[in-house]
Amino acid sequence: MGAPATTDSLTVRDERTGKTYSIPIVNNSISATAFKAIKAPKKSGEREENETERGLRVSDKGFLNTAVITSEITYIDGEAGVLRYRGYPIEQLATQSNFLETAYLLIYGALPSSSQFASFEYEVTRHSILHVDTESLFRAFRYDAHPMAMMTSAFAALGSYYSEANPSLQGQTLYTKGDPQSIANMDKQIFRLIGKATTLAAMAYRVRQGRPFVQPPTGMGYTESFLYQMDHLTEENYKPSPVLAKALDILFLLHADHELNASCTTVLQTGSSLVDPYSAIATGCASLYGPLHGGANEAVIRMLISIGSPENVPAFVEAVKRREKVLSGFGHRVYKTSDPRSFIVRQIADEVFKVTGKDELLETAMLLHKIAMNDEYFIKRKLAPNVDFWSGLIYRAMGFPLDFFPVLFAVPRVVGWLAHWRQMMLQSGGVKIWRPRQIYVGSGKRDYVPINSRESVAGFKKEPSSIAHTGQSKRAQLAEHRCKL
Ligand SMILES: CC(C)(COP(=O)(O)OP(=O)(O)OC[C@H]1O[C@@H](n2cnc3c(N)ncnc32)[C@H](O)[C@@H]1OP(=O)(O)O)[C@@H](O)C(=O)NCCC(=O)NCCS
């Protein structure tokens, strides 16, 4: 390895060979590929699959300390509880901006002028109408389908309507060229995805109620229009509650981005194959659906319901400490103090409760918060409330069903996913497909054994499980039929 270009460097001595390597430190990071140059001869008896002579691997299960991109979008200081979008503190944006303005900031890098904002708002709201065939997509789901399953499918399906937006059909450089035409095409998909996200979410909501779908209204703000699309039936001059519209708008703003969380990373991983943005956003939705990510606000309410009244809180906390339960809404991979968004959400909760009435689980939540914040177990592990601890209570007070909570997270997060996707498509040096390595610890080479000469391997996890066929009626179970086993 040659001399580092910067004065900051890391000196590594490989005790296997006695060789010393100097690895440049840039932006307080070292390049994992630099370690590929650190090679050693294979020891006698060492597994060939270790590939020791081909360079050292950097192992990081769960991306605990691996930076996969350079970004200008969001900064988090997890120790200090700081969150900034494009340099602006989240607290200032929450009190002075609005969701769509913040979306512009996240995607394009600067706060818009009045005319820039007006044009962005016009394009986003103009692109909220869906092809009428999408109605049959929603109607094809079973009556009790989870709305996130609908959202994931709907985003993927949406891409099929725009062949001009598909690099598989138009050429792989469709979004990476960086010329005005390519960027305009990219921005059009961004307007469509943000504009249609609320329409899809409202359809996922209405289809389960057996309600007809409504066209997005004109003359309403983004979140106001979303509330209208969910709730309007036959009323004349229907106008959603301004308190609820404002609260939802701030919640959307707070959920718009959070740098490289699991779903954003998924969008970038998928997008790195240069697939169309609709498919990439669909995978983000799938990732967000998981209980360790966007499903946490729903899990908080289920947890609070299971605890019931405040007198059961101490026993629940003890069960968490015995690792029998998880305190949902607490803990974060990045924040090691209170999530700054949780304070803002707590204030919004009070505003919402003024018009909706207090949620009956609030007392339980407040006591749980108080006990956990003063308990050595949580203090030692730096476990504090995250954004989901209070947001579920607000959504419940607003009357949203529990399984709709992740949708209320996914809709605004479309903005963050798109901001990162756009940045990656336009990054200097082009897009590299995200293809990590593994540490192979499986069998060495072995030869195929014909079926009659094999010794079978049996046991738990070592063969397919025997399963119950619950879908079969008693009559079908008793019927005679041809069966291999
Ligand atoms: C968010 C989360 C997945 C982060 O996980 P992580 O960074 O991998 O943290 P770890 O699982 O290593 O946790 C560190 C320690 O705290 C404990 N811990 C973390 N979150 C906990 C929680 N919510 N309740 C109880 N214990 C928790 C772990 O058991 C571990 O304890 P140990 O060191 O004694 O084994 C995790 O905190 C969690 O599951 N929280 C609840 C779900 C949630 O609210 N998710 C929304 C995030 S916005």
Describe this structure in words.
This protein has helices at residues 90-96, 99-108, 114-126, 134-139, 147-159, 167-170, 180-209, 222-231, 242-255, 262-271, 277-288, 296-307, 313-321, 340-356, 362-373, 376-380, 388-397, 405-426, 474-478, and strands at residues 9-14, 19-24, 74-77, 82-85, 88-89. The chain is mainly alpha-helical and 485 residues long. The chain has 2 domains: 9-54, no CATH class; 99-438, Citrate Synthase, domain 1, CATH 1.10.580. The strands form 2 sheets. Strands 3-4-5 form a 3-stranded antiparallel sheet. A two-stranded antiparallel ribbon has the order 1-2. Helix 10 runs antiparallel to helix 11. The mean pLDDT is 94. The structure holds coenzyme A.
The count of helical stretches stands at 19
**Distance separating the two termini:** 61 Å
Please bin the fraction of helical residues: 40-55%
CATH architecture of the largest domain: Orthogonal Bundle
**In percent, how much strand structure appears in the residues?**
under 5%
CATH homologous superfamily designation of the largest domain = Citrate Synthase, domain 1
Please write the CATH class name of the largest domain.
Answer: Mainly Alpha
Give the overall shape, derived from the CA principal axes: globular
Q: Which hetero ligands occur in this complex? A: coenzyme A
**Most strands sheet:** 3 strands, antiparallel
- Strand order across the largest sheet: 3-4-5
Order of helices and strands, N to C? EEEEEHHHHHHHHHHHHHHHHHHH
- CATH topology-level name of the largest domain: Citrate Synthase, domain 1
Mean pLDDT, all residues: 94
Poorly predicted runs of 5 or more residues: none
Instruction: Report Rg.
Output: 26 Å
In total, the number of strands is: 5
Number of domains: 2
* Structural class by helix and strand composition: mainly alpha
Protein name: Citrate synthase
Pathway: Carbohydrate metabolism
GO molecular function: acyltransferase activity, acyl groups converted into alkyl on transfer
Family: Belongs to the citrate synthase family.
